[in-house]
Amino acid sequence: MSALHSIYGQDWELWRTDGTSGGTRHLATEVSPESAFVRLGASVLFAASSRDEFGFFEPGLWKTDGTPAGTVPIRVPLGGLDDGPQELTVLQDRLYFFSPNGSWGLWRTDGSAAGTVLVRQFADQENPIQSTRFGLTVSAERLFFIADDGVHGRELWTSDGTAEGTRMVLDLYPGAASGVPGGPTAGSPLTAAGGKLYFSGNDGSHGTELWESDGTAAGTRLVQDLAPEAASSLPGPLVPAGDHLFFVADDLISGREPWALPLSGPADCRPAATRLCLNGGRYQVEVAWLTGQGQTGAGNGVPLSSDTGYFWFFDAANVELVVKILDGQAVNGHVWVFYGALSNVEYMITVTDTRTGLARRYFNPLGTLASVGDTHGFGPLGASSANPVPPVARAAASPLPLVSEHPGKVAATPCQATVGRLCLNDGRFAVEVAWKDFQNHTGTGTAVPLTEDTGTFWFFAAANVELVVKVLDGRPLNGKFWVFYG
Q1: Are 147 and 122 within 8 A, CB to CB?
Q2: At a CB cut-off of 8 Å and minimum separation 6, what does 380 contact?
Q3: Mean pLDDT, to the nearest integer, of 428-452?
Q4: What pLDDT does 376 receive?
Q5: Comparing C-alpha atoms, which of 155, 137, 236, 169 is closest to residue 203?
Q6: Average pLDDT over residues 334-360
Q7: pLDDT beyond 80 at 382
Q8: pLDDT-based confidence at 367, cuts 50/70/90?
Q9: For 197-201, 275-279, 292-296, 445-449, which range has the lowest pLDDT when averaged over its residues?
Q10: Which among 215, 228, 223, 227 has a CA at the least distance from the CA of 261?
Q11: Quick check: 339 and 467 in contact, CB under 8 A?
């Protein structure tokens, strides 16, 4: 079936062609197709405007078998003064579309006038932002679309083609607000890929982010909170290709850039050079850094245990940051996030719960040397359930270290490493740790070297890193050795 042909500015005409001059012929005059051509059985259906007896154009639904005699209206008029049937979509042996009938409604047709019926009426959809009002899409043998029932705002709906089987999937943004408001992107706001439906949604807590649904309320979830908390990454358009879903989004760090979501494999964190996967692979940790000279980059992650890892920025031998995630739900119902700072470079840590898509972001300002412990990182109500604003690292009030300096004897030989002693910076510095807990139990830390200038200590279990220490030779800058711990 051809597209359209116009002669000297006169009315549109419907033609067909097989790509040859002899196979190109005229089908109908004064029929102005206004949609894509959609095959249903042996016919091709389309929305079109045609002249009525008074010479005015009125919208309707048409079909053709490729012959002039077989090009006929199914139902005319059908629609309003300015809008006819839209978003023609086939599911099994029926065609579905939206058309105004007072207000917009979902319609179904089998290609006959008697078989063209209204499935469900919806509220007016005035002034849509996107080029498609409803995003009518087929996924897993069901229809999905965005509609406003006049009570819940624009939300995700699904239908099996019957009135009783047409329902709202979830009131994503509770109340009259719209959970799927649409956005300034071309194409449909809904995309079927990998057996699921993807869309940009806003639940009122996490901004407009990427969501997925299987058609049930329980199976509708946030994929990832790319711009954490109430900010919006505004993902879209959503384009499936191969085994990935591609889209553009702004995570508030890198600007508006392309992203890719794997459509297959486990939902857990996938290890990468710039990513740590902690706590059984559930939590994904990434770091973006910025120097005072404007240089930027991503931290390189190195795992230490199932719940702890570190990042280096400029040199693999120079540990800049250690991150630990503990399941503290037995204590206070939350997952705890700790990080030990060994660098005063500006950086942003993003921790994502890959099971829920929720994210937590921690900011270390330029020139700040401070560690953070967030014992309300991820809770039963999400990443912001108890602590709406993640802690920001702050420098100590005093520029002096909160330790005492004791003159000591100069060792005749370099430091000798033991179970409880780290030897750092070519063995010049011996580091030991004594600890006391809240029950006044005491002990000494067990040392684990990482690099020539950095090591860790554990107190109770080898898998539970408690402290990281780094000693750098800063004499070229200020005549001093530098000691960091986090």
Answers
A1: yes
A2: 333, 334
A3: 93
A4: 87
A5: 155
A6: 89
A7: no
A8: confident
A9: 292-296
A10: 223
A11: no
pTM over 0.85: no
For residues 461 and 305, the answer to whether their CB atoms sit within 8 Å is no
Residues 203, 254 contacting (CB under 8 angstroms): no
Tell me how far apart the alpha carbons of residues 71 and 44 are, in angstroms, rounded to a whole number.
9
pLDDT reading at 392 higher than 60: no
SS3 content of the chain, % helix, strand, coil (to 5): 0, 45, 50
Domains and CATH numbers, the chain: 4-262 (2.140.10.30), 276-378 (no CATH), 422-485 (no CATH)
- Which of the 8 DSSP states describes residue 150? S
Q: Give the CB-side neighbour count of residue 114, counting CA atoms within 13 A.
A: 0
120-158 burial: b if 16+ Cβ within 10 Å, else e: bebeebeeeebebbbbbbbbeebbbbbbbeeebbbbbbb
CA-wise closest residue to 379 among 444, 327, 331, 335: 335
> Which own/partner contact pairs does 317-321 have at CB distance under 8 Å and 24+ positions apart?
317/451, 317/452, 317/453, 318/451, 318/453, 318/454, 318/472, 319/450, 319/451, 319/454, 319/468, 319/470, 320/289, 320/345, 320/347, 321/287, 321/347, 321/349, 321/486
Q: 471, 389, 374: which is closest to 432 by C-alpha?
A: 471
Cis omega (within 30 of 0) for bond into 77: yes
N-to-C CA span, the chain: 69
Strands of 160-272 (E only): list them: 167-170, 190-193, 196-202, 208-213, 221-224, 239-241, 244-250, 256-262
Among the residue ranges 154-163, 245-254, 396-405, the one predicted with the least confidence is: 396-405
User: What is the rounded distance in angstroms from the CA atom of residue 152 to the CA atom of residue 173?
Assistant: 8
Question: Which pLDDT band, with edges at 50, 70 and 90, does 14 fall under?
Answer: confident
Report residue 130 as tokens: 């996107």
Give the helix/strand (H/E) hosting 475. helix 475-478
Nearest CA-CA partner of 119 in 62, 76, 167, 161: 161
411 — pLDDT class (breaks 50, 70, 90): low
Chain mean position to CA 144:
20
- Which stretch of DSSP H or E encloses residue 58? strand 57-64
- Write the DSSP string, 77-100: S-S-SS---EEEEEETTEEEEEEE
